[in-house]
Design a protein that fits this description.
Layout lengths: L1 E2 L10 H15 L12 H5 L4 E5 L2 H8 L3 E9 L8 E2 L1 E6 L6 H7 L1 E4 L5 H13 L6 E4 L3 H10 L4 E5 H10 L1 H4 L2 E6 L3 E2 L3 E4 L4 H14 L2 H7 L1 E5 L3 H5 L8
Parallel strand pairs: 1-2, 6-7, 6-8
Antiparallel strand pairs: 2-11, 3-11, 3-12, 4-10, 5-8, 5-9
Length: about 240
């Protein structure tokens, strides 16, 4: 069986994620002893051996719906955001005062992946709502790499998953001081937990709730993880699929 919690598994969070999985496994009564790390996400998501993983909303609606079972949606501690939702920060260097329209025309937008809700779909929707579209883009393959591209000047702005940004800023406060989170996108359903097609999601969802409750207050605060709710697949599928870069 495969269990993976890799979407936010930064080095400083791995011990807390291990404790979360230990609580989930104990409540479920079975599962692998350890989380799978550094595997191929698409292979894991679509494996018949998948017990638990977390995917992104855009891959779910674009490719995985009908091939996996939706388990539930985590509730994160995010400012001014509905439960079970998240958003993207649009970031630029603090020394760069250009507004969004000017950046879209003159600057380079970093994005992690064209199948990322927070790194591509949400920023593109936000730009469209403001009568803009990125003229120049660079793919980085990871949100943190997009942050680093903006900091280094390789890119001028980017859309970053708000949770990723806040978790990164926990251990990079000096670099975060150089970043201006100058806008935010509309909230959309957060990254869903999934299991293999045909597997009963209810015991897994109950085990996740128990695992979260069993965490120490410090671990929950570190992961910014508050609970689990049920958001129907239809809410994920209702969002548009953006054009490719």
């Amino acid at each position: 069986m495969i269990a993976s919690l890799g979407m936010y598994d930064m080095p400083h969070l791995r011990d807390a994620h291990d404790r979360l999985w230990s609580g989930i496994r104990a409540a479920l009564g079975h599962g692998p002893d350890h989380l799978t790390r550094d595997g191929d996400a698409w292979a894991e998501w679509q494996s018949p051996d998948l017990l638990l993983a977390q995917t992104c909303g855009l891959p779910f609606r674009a490719r995985l719906h009908g091939k996996v079972t939706l388990v539930g949606t985590p509730v994160y501690d995010l400012p001014d955001c509905p439960a079970g939702h998240y958003f993207s920060y649009l970031i630029r260097r603090r020394s760069d005062a250009r507004d969004l329209k000017t950046l879209s025309k003159q600057g380079i937008m970093a994005y992690n992946d064209a199948l990322s809700q927070s790194g591509w779909a949400a920023p593109i929707a936000h730009l469209k709502n403001h009568g803009a579209h990125p003229r120049n883009t660079i793919r980085t393959d990871a949100h943190i790499a997009s942050i680093e591209a903006v900091l280094s000047g390789a890119a001028d702005y980017a859309g970053i998953d708000a949770l990723t940004y806040l978790l990164w800023a926990q251990v990079n406060p000096d670099m975060a001081q150089q970043i201006d989170t100058f806008a935010r996108t509309s909230p959309t359903p957060a990254l869903p937990y999934i299991t293999a097609l045909g597997r009963d999601p209810i015991p897994i969802a109950n085990a996740i709730r128990s695992g979260i409750a069993a965490l120490s207050a410090n671990d929950r605060a570190t992961l910014r993880l508050k609970g689990l709710i049920d958001i129907p697949a239809s809410e994920y599928l209702a969002l548009p699929i953006p054009p490719a870069p």
